Every structure is written in structure tokens, then in C-alpha cells.
TrEMBL record:
Belongs to the CCC1 family. It comes from Tolypocladium ophioglossoides (strain CBS 100239) (Snaketongue truffleclub). It is found in: Endomembrane system. PANTHER family: FE(2+)/MN(2+) TRANSPORTER PCL1. This is Vacuolar iron transporter 1.1. It is a multi-pass membrane protein. The lineage of its organism: Eukaryota, Fungi, Dikarya, Ascomycota, Pezizomycotina.
Length: 277
């Protein structure tokens, strides 16, 4: 930056040219050369963030269930003393659970997508009606929740009413609080949750594949699963809250749930085996 000196003038030789600034009331539309627009960029970024959040949720649910349920089942079956029985029962539950969790996630996402489309179709039908006054009143009611005065909201309301697509999008986003799910969301959700369940459930079963004695395999499985439960519980809470205390609390919660499930399964199967003998 050049500072003025005794030999340089304090004022510039040429005054800056004042350029007109477009307002919301200009009759001419703004230039469309700049792309992407801020609204498009913000919409794409918010959609990406929502997709990442949904994927993370599916991973957490699938992995935690997979780590808990097959572990509890194999721990209970290990009380019978047969490695083959543990492996057969564990694999049967693992594959059936993976299919069930994946299908459930797919159906839930597909139902959410269909619900959004039906609601949007209803809003489009309402937008096609000539009742502009009702459309303006709806927009004013939404903006009034954010304490926006009618005088300040009038240009925005007129602009939205002049563009039906933007009016529908505004109503879906702010009035109905519904985000448009991606078209491939159902398939991704089902595959993510199913694979997460399979990976989580396979970890406690690995010792039974490589060790001959059921008791030794059970001890190794418990030790490995405890470590995984602690790490997973800490990671999922820390990623969500960004706090070490929340991570420790999540680790303890996950560990307690897993231990209670495995212990209960072991005791019940052991009691049933003694009762039948």
C-alpha cells in the first residue's frame, strides 16, 4: 500500500466512478452470467451435509446393532460348548440381521421420499390456483415467525410469488420444514446400514473361526468386543458433540449395553440348557 508523501497529492487524480447498485425493485433482472448462484451453492452444500448426516446415522445404527446382537447371541451359544453351533447360529443371525436392517432402512428412506413428493405435489397444485392473496399471506405468516416486518418482507414476497418454483421451494423448506431427499438415498441407506451391521457383527465371531476351544474363543471375543465398543462409543459421540466428556460417556453407554445384552443371553441359554438336561 502506497502512503502519501510531501510530493504526492492527498487526493487521487481521478475520483472513483460510482456504479449503480441493483435493488430488489429494478425492473431489469440481474445478470445470469455468474454461476453458480449463492442460493444454488447453499442448497447443494446443505443437501451434501444432510446426506452425510444420514449416512453417518445409518453407519452408527447398523454397526452398533451388529456389534451387540450377534455378540450377545454367540456369547449365549458358547455356553453350550460347541464351536460349530456358535458359528452356524452366529452366521444365520448375521445374514438375516443384515438383510432385515438393510431392507428396513431402504423402506424407511423410500417412504420418506414418497411422502415428500406427495406433499410437494399438493403444494404445486395449490400454487397453480389463482389465489395470489392466499399465497402472499402464507409467505407473510412464515416470515412473521422470524420477526420480519411486512414492509421488509414485501419485496421478497412479490419476488417469490412471481416465480412459482421458488415459492414452492420456499414453502417446503421453511413452512413445512421438509428437505428434498436425494433420489438414490433409499438404496444408499439400505446398503450402508446392511453392510455396517454385517461388519459390526462379524468382529465378535472372528475368534470362533480361528480358535478350537469355545471357552478361549469366548474370552478373546469378549476382550475384542469390549475394546471395539469403547472405541466406537467414544468416536460416535465425539464426532457428533466434539467433546471428550461426551465421548467418554458414549463409550460407557455402549459398553454397558453390550455387556448387559451378552451377559443376559449367556445366562438365559445356560439356564435353558440346564433345564433341558
Amino acid at each position: 500500500m502506497a502512503y502519501p508523501s510531501e510530493s504526492s497529492p492527498l487526493l487521487p487524480s481521478e475520483l472513483p466512478v460510482e456504479r449503480p447498485f441493483p435493488t430488489a425493485f429494478d425492473s431489469k433482472p440481474l445478470s445470469r452470467d455468474a454461476s453458480p448462484s449463492p442460493s444454488t451453492a447453499s442448497s447443494s452444500s446443505s443437501s451434501a451435509a444432510a446426506g452425510l448426516s444420514d449416512t453417518l446415522r445409518d453407519i452408527i445404527i447398523g454397526f452398533s446393532d451388529g456389534l451387540t446382537v450377534p455378540f450377545a447371541l454367540t456369547a449365549g451359544l458358547s455356553s453350550l460348548g460347541s464351536t460349530k453351533l456358535v458359528i452356524m447360529g452366529g452366521l444365520a443371525e448375521l445374514f438375516s440381521g443384515m438383510i432385515s436392517m438393510g431392507l428396513g432402512a431402504y423402506l424407511a428412506a423410500a417412504t420418506e421420499r414418497d411422502h415428500y413428493r406427495s406433499q410437494r405435489a399438493g403444494v404445486l397444485a395449490a400454487c397453480a390456483s389463482p389465489a395470489r392473496a392466499e399465497q402472499r399471506d402464507e409467505l407473510y405468516a412464515v416470515l412473521d415467525k422470524y420477526r420480519v416486518s411486512r414492509a421488509a418482507a414485501a419485496p421478497l414476497v412479490e419476488e417469490l410469488c412471481a416465480h412459482p418454483d421458488q415459492w414452492v421451494r420456499f414453502k417446503m423448506d421453511f413452512a413445512m420444514r421438509m428437505d428434498e431427499p436425494p433420489g438414490h438415498r433409499a438404496c444408499v441407506s439400505g446398503a450402508t446400514m446392511g453392510l455396517s451391521y454385517f461388519v459390526g457383527g462379524l468382529i465378535p465371531m472372528v475368534p470362533y473361526f480361528v480358535m478350537a476351544r469355545v471357552r478361549d474363543a469366548l474370552l478373546v471375543s469378549v476382550a475384542v468386543t469390549v475394546v471395539i465398543l469403547l472405541a466406537f462409543g467414544y468416536a460416535k459421540n465425539y464426532v457428533a458433540v466434539r467433546n471428550h466428556r461426551a465421548g467418554v460417556w458414549g463409550a460407557l453407554q455402549t459398553l454397558v449395553i453390550g455387556v448387559l445384552a451378552a451377559g443376559t443371553s449367556y445366562v438365559i441359554v445356560k439356564a435353558l440348557d440346564r433345564g433341558s438336561s
